[in-house]
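TASK: fixed-backbone design
INPUT:
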């Protein structure tokens, strides 16, 4: 029999009141009310579980006005819904509701996680851009001491990566976008720059790709989430090999012009770099300019350079046992650097700081820029006239003439600090090649003197590997 409001109002604590079957007939469940110790009247839907045990499922608090809970009509409606669910075959209504509640909670949490991930993705795309990747890659190059490479890469990135592409998330940059950047540079006639740009971009992406597994790389690269290198699909642009070498007459003019013009213009320091690079066997200008006073052992006339070229993490020591003329150039440079430092110290009222003095520096605090020497070589070339050449052509000329003197390929590689790698060179061949390099430089200076005097190589010069007649 259905309950009346008065009966609900008069219910005592702990008393159960039945509103009767929810549906028609048996097996539809019953709506019950019970007064709690706090005075609240709670509605229950009672039904029979599959095992025969009854379960009273709370469905809400009763309130006659409906403001603090359900009215009687609302309680009956809610119980009716549960009854229909029960009659549809759901025999454990409580477990069913709990499963639905858990599913709803999981769906809510998933939606919240998706929303947070979407926010994070937007943030990451704004933060971990191609520009940021390039900047971090450049910083890593500088930490490794490869400042020249970092400077070159920075200039290429700034000039040839558009703001539109640079502002994209690095992991979203496509091969087509990189190819378009490289193609634009190449079509402007800068083929070498296009090849170098591609190379640096590939190195930046590869660094970020390897960072999660390579402890030698900065952990900051991991956050970019790079899983593939978009530059891999773009063919490398082969650097055109230079083939310009100077004749003996051109080399004689080059030496004479450097000596004469340097004295007239006051560019002796840059000219000393050009001459030392030549007389020391065709050394790289950038490596010579990094030499310091302490790198020269006057007792053995040995100049120590550091070769940081290539992928090596630490520069390789490169020792040059100089012949007399080249040694004389270095001695003069040492004396010049020390005299300048003593003069500065006197003017500034301090003790001279001779440790760490650069061999090539106009004011002692910063080494001479390689571009200064390259520009000087261009001036010399223009002054001589004829076919153009640069410092790389001078280096190529030296090696070609050294080969003509019978200097072996291995000795030339050691003397010019070519890419000496492989298992044998890295782990087993510990020979310093000091005697071979010294003999080669002595023979080379004799050859240069003969060129300067417009003579053939002196008859007392013996090709290495041959016996005197």
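OUTPUT:
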């Amino acid at each position: 029999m259905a309950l009346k409001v008065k009966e609900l109002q008069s219910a005592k604590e702990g008393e159960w009141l039945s509103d009767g079957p929810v549906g028609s007939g048996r097996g539809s469940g019953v709506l019950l009310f019970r007064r709690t110790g706090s005075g609240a009247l709670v509605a229950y839907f009672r039904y029979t579980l599959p095992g025969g045990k009854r379960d009273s499922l709370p469905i809400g608090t009763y309130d006659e006005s409906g403001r603090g809970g359900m009215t009687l009509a609302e309680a009956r409606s809610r119980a009716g819904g549960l009854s229909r669910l029960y009659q549809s075959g759901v025999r454990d209504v409580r477990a069913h509701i709990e499963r639905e509640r858990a599913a709803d909670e999981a769906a809510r949490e998933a939606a919240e996680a998706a929303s947070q991930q979407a926010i994070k993705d937007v943030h990451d795309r704004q933060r971990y851009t191609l520009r940021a990747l390039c900047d971090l890659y450049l910083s890593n190059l500088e930490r490794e001491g490869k400042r020249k490479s970092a400077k070159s890469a920075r200039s290429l990135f700034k000039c040839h990566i558009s703001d539109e592409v640079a502002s994209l998330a690095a992991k979203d940059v496509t091969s087509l976008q990189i190819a378009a950047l490289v193609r634009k540079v190449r079509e402007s006639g800068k083929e070498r720059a296009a090849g170098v740009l591609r190379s640096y971009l590939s190195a930046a992406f590869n660094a970020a790709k390897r960072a999660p597994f390579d402890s030698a790389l900065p952990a900051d690269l991991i956050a970019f989430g790079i899983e593939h290198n978009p530059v891999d699909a773009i063919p490398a642009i082969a650097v055109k090999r230079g083939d310009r070498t100077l004749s003996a007459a051109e080399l004689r003019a080059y030496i004479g012009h450097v000596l004469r013009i340097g004295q007239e213009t006051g560019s002796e320091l840059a000219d000393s770099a050009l001459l030392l690079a030549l007389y020391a066997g065709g050394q790289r200008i950038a490596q010579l300019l990094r030499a310091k006073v302490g790198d020269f052992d006057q007792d053995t006339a040995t100049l120590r350079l550091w070769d940081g070229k290539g992928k090596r993490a630490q520069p390789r020591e490169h020792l040059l046992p100089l012949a007399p003329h080249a040694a004389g150039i270095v001695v003069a440079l040492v004396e010049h650097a020390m005299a300048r430092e003593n003069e500065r110290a006197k003017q500034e009222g301090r003790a001279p700081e001779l440790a760490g003095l650069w061999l090539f520096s106009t004011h002692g605090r910063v080494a001479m820029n390689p571009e200064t020497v390259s520009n000087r070589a261009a001036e010399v070339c223009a002054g001589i006239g004829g076919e153009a050449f640069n410092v790389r052509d001078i280096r190529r000329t030296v090696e070609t003439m050294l080969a003509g003197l019978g200097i072996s390929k291995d000795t030339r590689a050691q003397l010019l600090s070519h890419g000496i790698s492989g298992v044998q060179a890295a782990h087993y061949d510990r020979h310093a090649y000091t005697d071979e390099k010294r003999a080669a430089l002595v023979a080379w200076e004799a050859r240069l003197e003969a060129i300067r005097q417009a003579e053939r190589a002196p008859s007392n010069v013996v090709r290495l590997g041959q016996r005197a007649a």
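COMMENT: The chain is about 50% helix and 10% strand.
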